[in-house]
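Severity: low
Component: inverse-folding endpoint
Summary: output formatting inconsistent between runs
Steps to reproduce: submit the following structure tokens with default settings.
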């Protein structure tokens, strides 16, 4: 089940996942995000509270990856909030965010207010505790083809 968080306003959208994430859950969420992205001409910030998430089915993951692929330039910041070690969360989310150009940061559940602050701000506040998961440069930014002469 996905819950839209009331703190969402302006160019910041937040949601919490409870239980196992299903394809049906992602359909409604992604439609809301599509609408929000259409309303704002500048990139938005997204907060995903995964504190009570208990996994996801493959179709839900596929929907998420396809959405991120379509909107890679419209999402500037992605804050992941969780109760697990950030390394465990990274293994769950990094596959989907690898193609995303957004900065991705992890916050513990006790740091929820810091996550909201960062998602809503245009610049990074150096006082906020941060665990950078992905710097937001695009998956193939530094890629150089090896076999161009073949």
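Observed output (run 2 of 3):
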């Amino acid at each position: 089940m996905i819950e839209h968080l009331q703190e969402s306003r302006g160019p910041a959208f937040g949601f919490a996942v409870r239980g196992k994430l299903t394809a049906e859950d992602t359909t409604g969420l992604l439609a809301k995000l599509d609408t929000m992205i259409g309303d704002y001409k500048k990139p938005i910030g997204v907060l995903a509270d995964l504190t009570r998430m208990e996994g996801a089915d493959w179709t839900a993951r596929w929907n998420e990856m396809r959405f991120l692929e379509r909107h890679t330039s419209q999402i500037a910041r992605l804050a992941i909030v969780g109760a697990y070690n950030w390394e465990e969360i990274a293994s769950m989310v990094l596959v989907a965010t690898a193609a995303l150009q957004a900065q991705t940061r992890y916050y513990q559940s006790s740091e929820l207010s810091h996550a909201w602050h960062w998602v809503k701000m245009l610049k990074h506040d150096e006082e906020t505790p941060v665990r950078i998961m992905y710097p937001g440069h695009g998956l193939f930014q530094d890629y150089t083809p090896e076999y161009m002469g073949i």
